Amino acid sequence: MSPPGDVARRHEGSPARDAAKPKLGSYRRHLLVCTGPRCTQNGESQALFDSLGDTFKAAGLDQGELRVKRTRVSCFAACKGGPVVCVQPDGVWYYNATPDNMRRIVDQHLVGGEPVEDLIFHRGPGLATNGGEGAPTGG
Ligand code: FES
After folding, report:
1. Which of 6, 15, 40, 70 supports an S-S bond with 82, CB 3.0-4.6 Å?
2. Quick check: CB of 126 below 6 Å from ligand 1?
3. pLDDT tens across 14-46, in order?
4. Percent of the chain residues topping a pLDDT of 90
5. Is 38 near ligand 1, meaning CB less than 6 Å away?
6. In the chain, where are the structural domains located?
7. In the CATH scheme, what is the homologous superfamily, with its name and number, of domain 29-127?
8. DSSP the chain
9. Confidence of residue 97 (pLDDT cuts 50, 70, 90)
10. For residue 34, which atom of ligand 1 is closest to its CA?
């Protein structure tokens, strides 16, 4: 017995044929924020994420050349010292992103382009400007 028409058509051609193609606005950096349960115990990571819309707007990071896209993730497998955030494509991973420290990250890194060294717990893969593991060797 043959499958119903809809099922048979799904096996012909591209599997994404009926899917709506997503769109993203352009951005300079992508800030990933872990809001999983092990980085912080009392919702500090979610509160940080929730504050970023206003923070980015105040810093001029919500649009234009320096626009930062923000995304929640459920776990980076780092799981302590949170809030934990990652700035891509720079490959810079920050811990202890308290409100005060996040202001430093915003002002110095996301606006100024210079990573906040004392808050970094990992690098890579990243771009040449920060010395990350994925940095081109030049020459
Ligand atoms: S819960 Fe945040 S890195 Fe695992």
Report:
1. 40
2. no
3. 555 789 999 999 999 999 999 999 999 999 999
4. 76
5. yes
6. 29-127
7. Glutaredoxin (3.40.30.10)
8. -PPPHHHHHHTSS-TTTTSPPP-----SEEEEEE--TTT-SSSHHHHHHHHHHHHHHHHT-SSSTT-EEEEEES--S--SSSS-EEEETTTEEE----HHHHHHIIIIIIIT----GGGEEEE-S--GGGT-TT-----
9. very high
10. 2
Query: What value does the mean pLDDT of the chain take?
Result: 86
Per-residue pLDDT, 131: 43
Whether ligand 1 lies within 6 angstroms of the CB of 72 is answered as no
